[in-house]
Amino acid sequence: MNETETETKPEADGATVEVSHEEFRTGLPMGRFRLIVNPERAQKYVKHRLFVIGIALPLLGIGAALALSGHVWWGLPLVAAGALLPRVIKAHAAKILLHLALHDARTYREAIEYEILEVRRAA
User: How much is the pTM?
Assistant: First the structure.
């Protein structure tokens, strides 16, 4: 963005607006805002924020060790959980991001700043 342009756009219907976290929390359930979520960035942000890889890899490792040591009925569910966790998070990343943004001001600010979430006035 060059120096002559302004950070915020005019507040016409459907235009991006600067909204505080408190206003976002109260206005979203009332339908005052429309959200646009970048799905790819949301997936990356949620996977990073929830430390999914750091949880999935130990689940896979422990599950494989249990299954190979004779405790198959304990190991297989852990392997399945470790394999499915990243896929479930990826499929529901936008919903998880919205939940995190509603309950945490830092997440809301980061989502706006990293252009993952865009807030617009409802028409």
Answer: 0.80
